[in-house]
Design brief:
With about 250 residues, the protein is α/β, with parallel strands linked by helices. About 30% of the residues lie in helices and about 20% in strands. The strands form 2 sheets. It has an 8-stranded parallel β-sheet with strand order 5-3-2-6-9-10-1-11, sandwiched between helices. Helix 1 packs across helix 2. The protein is globular, with a radius of gyration of 17 Å. It binds 2-phosphoglycolic acid. 2-phosphoglycolic acid (PGA) binds next to loops.
Length: about 250
Amino acid sequence: MEILKVENYDQMSEKAADIVMEHLQGLDKPVLGLATGSTPEGLYRQLIKRNRAKEISFQNVITFNLDEYIGVKPEDKQSYHYYMNQHLFQHIDMDKRNVHIPNGTTRNEEEECKLYERQLMHVGPIDIQILGIGVNGHIGFNEPGTSFQSKTHVVELAESTRLANSRYFNSLDEVPTKAITMGIDTIMNSKTILLLVSGEKKAAAVKKLIDGEITEAFPASILQQHPKVYVIADEAALREVPNRNVVHV
Ligand code: PGA
C-alpha cells in the first residue's frame, strides 16, 4: 500500500486524476471502476477539465460503478445513476453503452448481481478502481461483517451509512435500507486500487486502514493484502498516521 500525502482536497483530486490517466493511457479498452460520494467529486472535475483540454479521451473506456441503492429510480436525484451523469458522464466523450451501474429497480436483485459479475468478467478485470472509505471502514457498500470472499450482492445498509448519506435526502426515513454493491472479492480483483480520503472525520478510519488488524469487522483492512493500492489522503485524514509511513507528494 502506497500512502501519498497531499495538503488538501484539491491536491488529492489532482493527484488522483494523474494516476487515473496513467492507468488508462495506452490500453485499447481500459476498464475504470467508479465510486460516488463527496470524495471523488473533485477527481471527476479534474477528469472533465482534462477531457475538454483533449488530454484524455473516454471514448473507449468501460466503466463499472461500485454500487446503487435498491428502490431508487435511475432518474431520481439521489440515485448513483443520476450522480454519475451529473458529476461525470454528461460532460465527457463517454460512450454510454460502456457504462455499467447496478440496476437498483430490478425485480430480481439476485439475478442482477449475477449479471453484473458476468458483465465484469467479460471485459475485466478492472484496470483501476476508485474507492472512498466510510467512517466504519466500508468500501463500496460492503459494511462491517461482509465476507472477504463476497461477489456483487445485496446489502442492508448500516445505520451509520444511512445517517451519513441522509444529507442527500429530505429525511433519514427516505434513505434506502438496501443496496447492490460489488463484493470485497470483486473489488480485490482490480489490478490497481486508488483510495481517496479527505478530512479529519475519516482520520480514525485511515489509521485502521493502514495499520489496523485485517478483519471483516473493518472491510477496508483487506486492502493491506492487495498488491497495488494507492491511498491519496490529505493532512487532516492522515493526522493519526506517523509520517514515516507516508510519501509526501
Ligand atoms: P464520502 O463517502 O465520499 O461521501 O465521504 C465515502 C464512502 O462512504 O465510501
